[in-house]
# Entry
Amino acid sequence: MKILDGKIYTISELNKEVRGVLETRYTGIWVEGEISNFKRHSSGHIYLTLKDEQSQISAVFFSFYHKGLKFEPEDGHKVLVFGRVSVYEARGQYQFYIERIEPKGVGALQLAFQQLKERLEKEGLFRSERKRPVPKFPKTVGVITSPTGAAIHDILNVINRRFCGTHILLYPVKVQGEGAGEEIAEAIRIMNQRGEAEVLIVGRGGGSLEDLWAFNEEPVARAIFDSAIPVISAVGHETDWTIADFVADLRAPTPSAAAELVVASRGELELKIKDAAERLRQGMIFRLRERRETLKNLAASAAFRQPRYLLEQFIERMDELGKRLQTSLTNWMTFKKQVFQTATGKLNVLNPLGILERGYSVTFDARGAVLKSAENLPTGTEIRTRLHQGELVSRVIATKETCSPRT
# Structure
């Protein structure tokens, strides 16, 4: 056996040389493909497969490269990846090492926006029934924005013009760039802890999608949702919406519009008060005229022109009613007396004592039972006889039967 180049490679040496060749030739390249077998390791590293219609290649996306990734890659996503081709020497595995990834056909920020919007909407953060009304005349308005941007100047100008005297409490934050979302979320929480503001305006002036991205971040959405103080989202863009707009209790297209919504115009309020005062005055005049007319009619009535005559008529009528009442009572008493006498007569007729008064008597045996017949009454039996006045006690000497009258 003849060795052509005079060298025998170990596996490690071969893999190392192949890795050097691949990294020299295929470093800093873009690859297009579809994601499959997407897996996020507990370490934070992402492992996946990139494929097209005919081939596939394993890929790895280390956590230190995707810390600033805005969207969440998923199986089926068409993507453009930037990185290098190399070999995992321990296994001799040829794979693509991703340093940057972008969705194909739609921007990464737009995809991240859609993903977060769908997730938060499913959780109920956008429900209209949970949104609270903004107070009409707040004494203190909290503003969370950049202290140097145009937004705070627009808000101050509008509020001072419309209702001077409203207290503005500014919490300065970054409104774009790294960490802006966390600052805004923390400001909302601190404003709630302090509890001084009656309403919060959270926003900034206009800009690109990248400039406004802090208001599309999840921490900001969660802080607005958890806020006990009503929140107005005032990001300076007329047509496009941010996640903050969907969660906020009220959305204003610009910071100036938010200021107009949060405080009423002093001039408009004064006009409303004048209008209400005029309507009240006219109503009082109408009522006064109405009452005067009623009083005039009463003064012209007979009750005021002839009060003595009406009083005499009233007294005469009362006397007449009194006499009628007395007559009715007399007739009623006479009738009741007659009824009582008739009932008394009937009772006297039926009263046994009345019969005794006419000479009759009633005889009882020793037990007090009325004797109706002499039959079976033994000789010597003690009997008692009740007279009209007094009682007789006697004994039976003899009994005698009498014939009952025939019918």
